[in-house]
Amino acid sequence: MITKHILITGATGLLGSTLIPTLQKEGHTVSILTRKPITIKDVKVYLWDIDLQTIDNNALQGVDTIIHLAGAGIADKKWTNKRKKEIIESRVKSAQLLYKTIRKTKAPVTSFISAAAVGYYGNRNDEFLSETCKPGKGFLADCCVRWEAAADEGKLLDIRVVKIRIGLLLSGAGGALTAIAKPIKFFVGAPLGNGKQWIPWIHITDVINIFAKAVNDKSMAGAYHATAPVPVTNKLLVKRIAYQLNRPIWPIHVPAFILRLLLGELSTLVLMSNNTNASQILATGYQFSYPHLDEALEEIYAGI
């Protein structure tokens, strides 16, 4: 395996902070771009400001691979018009700044691996979704389309662009699983909406390994689902989490209109259905560490 010099954006988040040691173990050199000075063992840290469109040009010196994870949290706040703008611009403007800097410094970047999301498809009910399906409608789909389009600008520079459409990320270190499990832990767990919506989940180990494969496998290009081969419904997800936590589930569902009253348009995240498949990433030879939900949850909740 040829070792790379990799620059990661959004490296202080759940995914980035887990990805760094994995890449280092493979022998790669890792640098990061961040807004505030931090210290990470054996990692060079460079500063940038997406809003001001400023960046330390030295960050790209000798870099051949960029992993672009930067972006305002989708579920951190309600989707006001201002917040929607922040979510989109944090993804689009950051990619544009990177490509602008590549042109300016003539950095030797040959691969641009961008996070993306299955929100690209919007709410598709039971439709079987492959990477070639058209995007859906609504804010989340529009955001994902613009996000991916910004990444694809690298093709004009003859850069290999890989877009990893991530599903519901399961990790014991935080993120969506913590939010879903919280009411279950307090004995008020219940399926959301009608509970029939498909949840394209994935264990964080598999997301990390898919990104690592994208770094090393030059044949990978375009969009790939980072979702487990066996999707589950919202109802089953809640039930299996409850089983791992030894908690009951209420026999009623949380009505969609209640979720919309509480969350506004953000309720889209828990009500939309994405029945994605993993055939394209499997075709690359990737083997999932956690293809089944129970295996993933057992690993996360081991020892509880």
Defining key terms:
304 residues; alpha/beta; 8-stranded mixed beta sheet; two-stranded parallel sheet; 10 helices; 36% helix; globular
Entry summary:
With 304 residues, this protein is α/β, with parallel strands linked by helices. The chain contains 10 helices and 14 strands.
Largest sheet: 8 strands, mixed
**Number of helical stretches of at least 4 residues:** 10
Report the end-to-end length measured between terminal Cα atoms: 38 Å
Unreliably modeled segments: none
> What string, H for helix and E for strand, traces the elements in order?
EHEEEEHEEHEEHEEHEEHHHEHH
Strand order across the biggest sheet? 4-3-2-1-5-6-8-12
The overall pLDDT, averaged over residues, is 92
The proportion of residues in beta strands is: 15-25%
Number of strands: 14
Structural shape: globular
Q: Measured on Cα atoms, how large is the radius of gyration?
A: 19 Å
The helix-and-strand class reads: alpha/beta
How helix-rich are the residues, as a percent range? 25-40%
